[in-house]
């Protein structure tokens, strides 16, 4: 039975090549747009999934109240990390790190700027740095040691086999390379991190880190799997005041799962964030898919009168309504899966341009289990939705009427439904176009608005260029420059 369904479907598609091509192409374009948006959504939702221990990793945030208003900061006291690990049950590990810093790195005559930070050795194990050369447990055995990314190693040495080599930072201090780690993926927190040096160096150079009242570094924590987050936060919230009654920061643990999508705080409490954009784009993707299905359904019902005689003959020959419904659903599903295959090819062609648009480096993996399942689900969903009405409508024709050549009464049938679907399709499309125009105008306004100053012939010099010690301090020759 199913074999016959497929034979008849292929014959009908081949018989009406132009119609079939337009119908399949329309659905394929809709699925392609939906697929690209869902790729972006997946990239956002899987942010930080690279970290295998993500269920237990947190950043310490702090609420501070000024003038009756509470603000949330990621800056913490320098003494917090070791103290909370020693004194608060449930905290398995902790690590201190500075804010990201862009530093001049030199090797002989070769120099370049790279992003990095000072961090404690525990930072490497907590965030599962994968070392290509060296070992995370011994990377910071020397005080003036440095670990670098494979990208930075190749930029400077054209090789990753660089253990023991020397690098000079800011033309002041030489560091020994203690390890080379694998690049982080683009959808991970530290994807731009190119080097790390021991936090101990920063601690020795900054006496203010010994005060509980100063907040100037980042603190990360790893909880024991058996610990309770709410209970740990309860003990942590007043921990700084127990050390210094004049301090106002009230720390709490902020899960790595929310760093990207739910990092907005209002009055000391989480209040959404980028997740709103993800939900909005997910909704738009579903709307586009629905529009494509409506278009597919409209084209199918438009041909209902052409298929009427076929239905009449088959009913006279003994075909029941169930077999006719199965035939037309099979035809719709097969066309839908052809559209899915075509959409995969279109997505592969358009993905580089889409990556450039959204500033990402996503890859198309149609045979990944999750992606393959999604494509199969979309194919079935589109086929069932788009083919359901034509199937049930066409199979309901009275064979006597169609064989006598009498005109079908479509006032409340396909014509009515088709008109309603066309109206719905245009309403949704016009709404999306209006929203797109408004957003475009907002962007143009932002780019062209008056800044309150004349920006012509103005240049900006980074602080690194002003303060670096190369051929003397550039800051001392500022007037000459």
- Helices, by number, come to 15
Average pLDDT number = 84
Q: How many β-strands, per DSSP?
A: 14
Proportion of residues in helical segments:
40-55%
Return Rg in Å.
Answer: 32 Å
Largest sheet: 6 strands, mixed, barrel
The helix/strand series, from N terminus to C terminus, equals HHEEHEEEHEEHEEEHEHHEEEHHHHHHH
Structural class category: alpha+beta
Shape: elongated
Sheet-strand content, in percent, reads 15-25%
Distance between the first and last residues' Cα:
85 Å
Uncertain regions: pLDDT < 50 for 5+ in a row?
468-472
* Order of strands in the sheet with most strands: 4-5-10-7-9-8
Written account of the structure:
- The chain is α+β, with helices and mostly antiparallel strands and 481 residues long.
- Helix content is 49%, strand content 17%.
- The protein has 15 helices and 14 strands.
- The strands form three sheets. The protein has a six-stranded mixed beta barrel with strand order 4-5-10-7-9-8. Strands 1, 2, 3, 11 and 12 form a five-stranded antiparallel beta sheet that branches. Strands 13-14 form a two-stranded antiparallel ribbon.
- The protein is elongated.
